[in-house]
Design goal:
Blueprint: H1 2-9, E1 17-25, H2 30-43, E2 49-54, E3 57-62, E4 69-74, H3 80-93, E5 104-109, E6 113-121, H4 130-141, H5 152-164, H6 168-177, E7 186-187, E8 197-205, H7 217-233, E9 237-244, E10 265-272, H8 285-299, H9 307-314, E11 325-329, H10 335-338, E12 342-344, E13 347-354, E14 363-369, E15 376-383, H11 391-410, E16 432-433, H12 442-447, H13 457-471, H14 501-511, H15 519-524, H16 528-539
Parallel strand pairs: 4-5, 7-16, 9-11, 11-14
Antiparallel strand pairs: 1-6, 1-13, 2-3, 5-6, 8-15, 9-10, 12-13, 14-15
Helix pairs in contact: 2-4, 6-9, 7-8, 7-11, 13-14, 13-16
GO molecular function: ligase activity; phosphopantetheine binding
Pfam family, one: Condensation
Domain Condensation: 20-421
């Protein structure tokens, strides 16, 4: 997930670059707070981590020391909200690139109230560990000693050893996903990069918190979603994402719950149901629930295996494949309430946040238990920018999801209750087409008669050097090299390396040659031909179609 967090932060929307405001009521010592922020960074290596890309890999670089930016101003409490908002807006407009430190602070000091704003990437924390950051900042400010804890570096090393042991993770995912395809809600022809979850539909599932039939509600929810996808796609073999906290590994001497860092990950859930022409898979309600329960348990030792590695080494999917739908059960009960009012030295503190979103999937199925009842809020989050997912369609999906939850929960004899028969439709309801599906300008360039081979030498040399520098793999990588037998002037870079990190590298490379292009420009001009035409335009170099 770290790669996805960094990818989104490099786009114009600055997704997953989050701003947390500590609203402090009471006396605050600015100098002591500044030192506390510095000590916090010194204590946690993840906060000193920057990210660099080299040869189709994203590396974490932990700096030995880092003095984060700390801007301090006197500001009347009546103006602090507006000043902070303007600072955030200006900060988001600043150009960003790989390798830059991400953590940054703004302090607005007032007589009775003050505000501390912290810029933090989601690549540095997750929902399970954010409280460690706030607890430690308060403790350091108050002069208390912070105990030594395992670090995210320890977690990464342990996870790598666990995944590589006997090639267990790769073997498990290869076997699980053999013959599978991603069940797509939308039919993307290139990596989606503009959308954010801007729309929601929601309902409440009553008294479902504890689950039934010996299975948890998470299992019932994922079974219900699998049935929805089966109905929509007319397929008895579906794949979707399951968001896991990533803290289920058992590692000797490592208390994972005390680690500050983004342990969260999205892993595949594959569900097969018996139907016409399909003899494998679940036949009864009990079969389905047990299949999902057992698969989740079996995947726990391998839940830290990254999606990029999974696609590259365990499937024959397109390199830029992402999960089209993701199920998340979010139980942070007590953690969020604790941040609404807490002590910060002599002051009282309330936390608020501005968190620009970037959707890692077309649909997020989010289930959140209510703290004081057995009810669960179920929200479907989706992007409205493409216009492909209408509210009526999403209401229909939510209705079917709740109906499936009710059916699975209320069945008196799950081992005998047959699953609904899936009758294939002549035209499946998904995947839905996306308006303006491909942003790739290559086809238009070819249609206009241009070719990469006919580009001016200075342009062609620059583009060739960029592609060799960025996309040629390291010798030990089990990936295809830049072999001309399958790469041509019209091959999109994301068919070679599926990460949008490459787009950021292209933009940086050309910027160092005094050509101003954005990450989005590179996604829209993903081939050597399309990039050549864009560079020629920016450099005012004449080009002509082939005769």
């Amino acid at each position: 997930m770290q790669t996805k967090f960094i990818e989104s932060s490099l786009l114009r929307g600055r997704g997953n670059t989050n701003y947390f405001a500590f609203h402090l009521k009471g006396n605050v010592d600015e100098a002591r707070l500044h030192k506390a922020c510095q000590a916090l960074v010194a204590k946690h290596p993840i906060l000193r981590t920057s990210f660099v890309a080299f040869k189709r890999r994203l590396f974490q670089v932990v700096l030995r020391s880092l003095s984060p930016e700390f801007h301090a101003f006197e500001c009347p409490e009546s103006q602090q909200k507006q000043v902070a908002a303007r600072w955030v807006e200006a900060d988001r407009d600043e150009p960003v690139s790989l390798g830059q430190p991400i953590l940054r602070f703004l302090f607005l000091g007032g007589k009775g109230e003050s505000m501390l704003v912290m810029r933090l990437s989601h690549a540095h924390y997750d929902g399970m560990s954010f409280h460690i950051l706030t607890d430690d900042l308060v403790a350091i400010y108050q002069g208390r000693v912070i105990p030594d804890r395992p670090t995210f570096v320890d977690f990464v090393h342990a996870a790598r050893e666990s995944n590589e042991q006997w090639q267990g993770a790769e073997s498990y995912w290869t076997k699980l996903l053999a013959g599978a395809t991603m069940t797509n809600i939308l039919s993307h022809m290139s990596p989606p990069y503009l959308s954010a979850w801007s729309e929601t539909v929601s309902r409440t599932a009553a008294n479902s918190k504890k689950g039934v039939h010996g299975f948890t509600f998470v299992t019932i929810l994922e079974a219900a979603w699998a049935l929805v996808l089966t109905e929509l796609s007319s397929s008895t073999d579906v794949v979707f994402g399951h968001l896991t906290a990533g803290r289920n590994m058992s590692i000797d001497g490592l208390d994972i719950d005390k680690i500050l860092g983004p342990c969260v990950n999205i892993i595949p859930m594959r569900v097969r149901i018996q139907g016409p022409g399909a003899v494998q898979g679940a036949r009864t309600v009990d079969d389905l629930l047990r299949l999902i329960h057992d698969q989740r348990l079996a995947a726990m030792p391998f839940e830290t295996f990254g999606m990029d590695k999974m696609v590259e080494h365990a499937t024959n999917w397109s390199p830029w494949t992402r999960f089209s739908s993701v199920v998340q059960y979010q139980n942070l009960e007590g953690r969020l309430e604790a941040l609404e009012d807490f002590s910060f030295g002599a002051a009282r503190c309330r936390l608020s946040a501005f968190q620009p979103q970037y959707e890692p999937a077309d649909i997020l199925v989010l289930a959140t238990p209510k703290p004081d009842s057995g009810d669960i809020d179920i929200v479907l989050q989706f992007g409205g920018r493409e216009g492909a997912l209408s509210r009526d369609f999403m209401d229909h999906i939510l209705h079917r999801l709740l109906a499936n939850i009710e059916m699975l929960s209320s069945t008196p004899s799950p081992s005998e209750q047959q699953l609904p028969l899936i009758i294939p439709q002549s035209v499946p309801l998904i995947p839905l087409p996306v308006q303006g599906n491909s942003a790739d300008r290559t086809a238009a360039a070819v249609a206009a008669g241009y070719s990469f081979e006919s580009m001016p030498m200075q342009i062609k040399d620059m583009v060739t050097r960029a592609w060799t520098t960025i996309l040629e793999p390291l010798p030990d990588q089990r990936v295809r090299t830049l072999d001309s037998s399958y790469i041509t002037g019209v091959t999109p870079f994301y068919d070679i390396w599926g990460s949008l990190i490459a787009a950021a590298q292209f933009a940086d490379f050309y910027a160092h040659h005094s050509v101003d292009v954005s990450v989005e420009d590179m996604v829209e001009h993903p081939s050597m031909l399309a990039q050549s035409i864009l560079l020629a335009k920016q450099m005012h170099v004449s080009i002509h179609p082939d005769t």
